[in-house]
Amino acid sequence: MPNNLLAGKVGIISGALDERSIAWKVAQRAYAEGARFVLTNAPLAMRMGEINRLAEECQAPIIPADATSVEDLEKLFSGAQEQLGGKLDFVLHSIGMSTNIRKGKHYGELNYEWFLKTLDVSALSFHKMMAVAEKQDALNEWGSVVALSYIAAQRVFPDYTDMSQAKAVLESIARNYGYRLGKLKKVRVNTISQSPTKTTAGTGVGGFDAFFDYADKMSPLGNAPAEACADYCISLFSDLTRYVTMQNLLHDGGFSSTGISEDIVGVIEQMNS
Predict the structure, then answer these.
(1) pLDDT digits (tens, 9 = 90+) for 83-134
(2) Mean pLDDT, residues 62-81 taken together
(3) Which residues, including other chains, have CB under 8 Å from residue 22's CB and lie 6 or more apart?
(4) pLDDT averaged over every residue in the chain
(5) Which of 17, 23, 149, 267 suits 190 as a labelling partner, its CA being 20 to 30 A distant?
(6) Which has the closest alpha carbon to 194: 238, 251, 241, 121?
(7) DSSP β-bridge partners for residue 27
């Protein structure tokens, strides 16, 4: 049930490709909670996705932007302020891409040009967003910036290859820019380390179904669905979390704190019997 947690707040939501996207769910929840926002995605992703349908549902304007282009981001932030009538209260960074993963490259045979592109799209774009926002003074005091991460930033998931490094860089940027924006404008910056989620991007990782099931069996609460992640994002956009910043917040049903579960023990015992 909506509680008007974001009544009067305005922002930018990036990365909504289709209804399986976490960003899509965040947009729906933000709209239900009273927020107004601009939707954005790369032009290519917009042609592949269904963002126009979401924009109509949420009465949200769309401003296409390549998140690796500072020029595009400048147009995005200035355009969003113009469309929404003032400075922004929240920004969601839900952007990630690895050509190495798409092409099935193992970790020892990464294409380094593609690796650099992974870092640019999936991590440096977060820094660029905040740098542009800072230069334009586009964020209100006590605003909130959130990016989506994954526990592969701290642990080894072999098929996640160069995205593991991208997520580690993303989380480091959140801490460093979180300090800067906190001192400048009391803006908070956090990442959410989400359970494996059956999004278009997530299911493109090799062996996804296996580690989705593994995480689900390891987590006492099971994998957190996209809708629950959207709820968590809304809480971080709201005034209820004004002093939470520079954190990597684990939203994974308890996976990250579980050594082994009874379900996994049962599977191993069955295999060995």
Answers:
(1) 999 999 999 999 999 999 999 999 999 999 999 999 999 999 999 999 999 9
(2) 97
(3) 15, 94, 148, 194, 197, 199, 226, 229, 230, 233
(4) 94
(5) 17
(6) 251
(7) none
End-to-end CA distance of the chain: 48
DSSP single-letter state for residue 59: T
215 touches 115 (CB < 8 A)? no
Helix (H) / strand (E) containing 209: helix 208-218
Return the amino acid letter for 3: N
pTM for this model (two decimals): 0.94
Task: Please list, residue by residue across 208-246, b when 16 or more beta carbons sit within 10 angstroms of its beta carbon and e when fewer do.
Answer: beebbebbbbbbeeebbbbebbbbbbbebbbeebeeebb
Q: How many residues does the chain have?
A: 273
In which band, very low, low, confident or very high, does the pLDDT at 143 lie, cut at 50, 70 and 90?
very high
Q: Which residue has the tokens 């069955």?
A: 270
Using CA atoms, how far apart are residues 90 and 142, in angstroms rounded to an integer?
9
Contact 226, 20 (CB under 8 A): yes
